[in-house]
Batch of 2 targets.
Target 1
Amino acid sequence: MYTNLSVFVAFVLLHGPPAQGFLQKRLDNGLAKTPPMGWNSYNHYSCQPNQSIIRSNAKALADFGLADLGYHYVTTDCGWTTPDRTADGALTWNTTLFPDGFPATGQYIHSLGLGFGVYSDAGVQMCATPSNSNQTGSLYHEMTDADTFSSWGADLLKYDNCYSSADHGYPDADYAPTSSPENRYETMKAALNDTGRPILYQICEWGLDFPSAWAPPLGNTWRITNDIIPAWRTIYRMINQAVPSASYAGPDHWPDLDMLEVGNDVFTLPEEQTHFSLWAIMKSPLVIGAALNDTVMTINPDSLAVLSNKDAISYNQDNLGVSANITRRWSEAGLDTWSGPLSGNRTVVAFVNWNNNTVQATLDLPDVGLQSAGYVKDVWNNYTAYGVQTSYENSIPAHGTLLLELGDTKPSGYYTVDKCGRREG
Ligand code: GAL
């Protein structure tokens, strides 16, 4: 594999040792052994964060028991900075929005036992709404900015892709760039490494140039799609886009399906369960994008229960670290099965009803590689069936999902002798 020792040593110094079990080199830095979990300001607050919003949501993560369930990083997305750098060339915060200082917000987050996430951009400006608000980006300033983030105690960097295409005059978004984003993301990766501070690195370049092919050695996570939007159609668009990337998931390197819309009052409860089930079993980062608590509102209890579901979270955080993928689509019936292995010889299945009405649906166990299951835990229905042979049936509400954990299983095609005809004499 390596032509000589010096090439191997150079590779190890640059990337860390190759992760075991993969032919392609993949990140193995111990910062995201399981998919990262946390909260991010963008889906609810767009590019208008402020210190009160960030603090009250961070506190809610702790107060609502979400931190104890694994939600750890609190990330302020776009809108925190200014059009200009300081006299010595550093990024700085908007003092109107963060009057006590951005680092003080980080200290507050740390005081809650949570991780401090920061946001920048591999372009000359950051993404911002409105797009002409001109917040300076990190392109050509990577080492300076990595040092700044490190000095502020940052634990995570989400690194975006606006205003990055030099060949096209740095437009806001360039979906047909003339060169791969890879080099720009690699430069920031090297800068983060040079700080010596462990900073979880989230690559956000909207899935351009199939990042699953090049991002696993660079990022702990990489976005595989353009942004999630607050509309049901976004869920099936994104989950279908996730299919070619599923096999690239593994400890320390996870395809990112984008932040959650659970709790933003755009989906029905069954839709939120579908969204959360699929993101969980596809091993996406689970990043809450709702307002948990601020001066205006508190998240509704049903959505909080979805985000707090211990079974779904345990499938996401399972130490086997293998993503589910689609195993069968009934196009006419409007049903899918998505399934994958869990530790302890278990299987997880999301049986999804894309129809606009409730259906009575039968999961054929061979469609997920099984003949029988000692038990089937039907998570959202809070019900467990025992001794399940060949199939499992239940009703699924419109746009809902049966999230199933199957244990004590036998592979498909397996029949015990006493269940088969026996020839005698
Ligand atoms: C997009 C990114 C979103 C959010 C937004 C901020 O490029 O994909 O997650 O960060 O920018 O404007």
Note: Residues 337 and 351 are 5 Å apart (CA to CA).
Target 2
Amino acid sequence: MPQNALSTFTELVKEDVVRWRRHLHQNPELSFQEEKTAQFVYDTLQSFGSLELSRPTKTSVMARLLGKQPGKVIAIRADMDALPIHEENTFDFVSQNPGVMHACGHDGHTAMLLGAAKILADLKDQIHGEVRFLFQHAEELFPGGAEEMVNAGVMEGVDLVIGTHLWSSLETGKIGVAYGPMMAAPDTFSITIEGKGGHAAMPHQTVDSIAIGAQVVTNLQHIVSRNTDPLDNLVVSVSKFIGGTAHNIIPGSVEIVGTVRSFDPKLREAVPELMERVVKGITEAHGAAYDFQYEFGYRPVINHEEVTRVIEETVSEVFSPDALDLLRPNMGGEDFSAFQQKAPGSFFYVGAGNKAKGIVYPHHHPRFTIDEDALENGVKMFVNAALKLLES
Ligand code: NI
């Protein structure tokens, strides 16, 4: 099918995609609990005909479109989960599930992939090979749904994989593409400083866990600034510090929690030891004890050169060279990386911010939303990139 005919065709599903997105937005479900979402996706896919459906895990869905001719197997992934945030938007399709909200755009991802599946299902006779649609649960909560789906075998026989994120800091009309490293490995840590509680007026009788904890936080900053190569990318952020109950009580312990972000596997492995050395040294110096827990999270998203080139060409051909935004990597995390362990893949961003429409709130904000005009762009990217990759 010629490119412009396909574009017109894509516009025909635009209304469906917006409707599906609004339905999902109104009915958000948390990670690993996407039961109604998965059922909605399954039922919608079934209505297209021509797809082989299965449920790889309790709350995920896979659809296989087997073309008439043999060829490559291309997988496209969309995540479906929402976040524990109480929505503050006021449009008429706000969350009907109090305290739960699609505040990252995964409702849009799911709707876009349904749209792509509908279009491609109609092209079944012309397809050489297979397009596999992966509707993934639980991107937001480690250990994540991607790894579970991979373990359930969804990547068996897959040659290439693509995925996207609607991105609010990129204006609608732009498509963000990155070669090589794109998103970091998000690891987490938890430190407990065990001091000795007592009266705040008699600190000499205590081992002050707050004062010691504050030094731990400060000294952890030396890892990035003084222990690792300035040319390596590394973040060590303390994001939670809990301790104390009243102005006149020194607490017996404090809890310090945070995240470490990196790309390089060797550097990543070295960080826990560097951190523990700081924690151990400072607590010992002041007569306190500690507990240190470190958890490796998702792998970094590293985009494959050849697949990314096809994505870049798709942007230029379907939109225009101006639509392309060659991105620097960012230190966010994504479990799309689990699929990239099994086949060369590329992850890209679909611009979904719109300052003129007031769509400016960041991801995970109670007033986050997407510009729905971006949905059509995402569908076009999925459909056209899949067709190009099948030919590649
Ligand atoms: Ni997200």
Note: The mean pLDDT is 96.
